[in-house]
Hints:
By secondary structure, this protein is mainly α. It has one domain: Cytochrome Bc1 Complex, Chain D, domain 2 (Orthogonal Bundle). 60% of the residues lie in helices and 4% in strands. It has a two-stranded antiparallel ribbon. Helix 1 (2-47) packs across helix 5 (109-119), helix 4 (76-85) packs across helix 6 and helix 5 packs across helix 6 (133-141). The protein is elongated. The relative contact order is 0.15.
Amino acid sequence: xxxxxxxxxxxxxxxxxxxxxxxxxxxxxxxxxxxxxxxxxxxxxxxxxxxxxxxxxxxxxxxxxxxxxxxxxxxxxxxxxxxxxxxxxxxxxxxxxxxxxxxxxxxxxxxxxxxxxxxxxxxxxxxxxxxxxxxxxxxxxx
Length: 142
């Protein structure tokens, strides 16, 4: 009986430390995401608002919407590459085909990550998995 209680007690202690570490990591990641979103909003206003508009709605059949965008959330890698390298050719967003050319914006990898974190968490989009500089570096090479 004492062994069972001892095992239970030790398990409880280990679990409580693990849980606190996980909470700390989540809070730390959340604060990093919030800061990235703030920086991304500034970049969006400077670089993207002309075509995609302040509300992220874009211009129908000319510039695709970012608000409630199925493409943005389901094609994460392609979206990163579009911001980093530009887009040529056809893309389909929310069932509408777009064929405009988006030139590369000349953003650094950290700026691409920040703007992606902003647009994937604005206007009805929700992305809890933070886009990192490492992810942008990997995807922009593909």
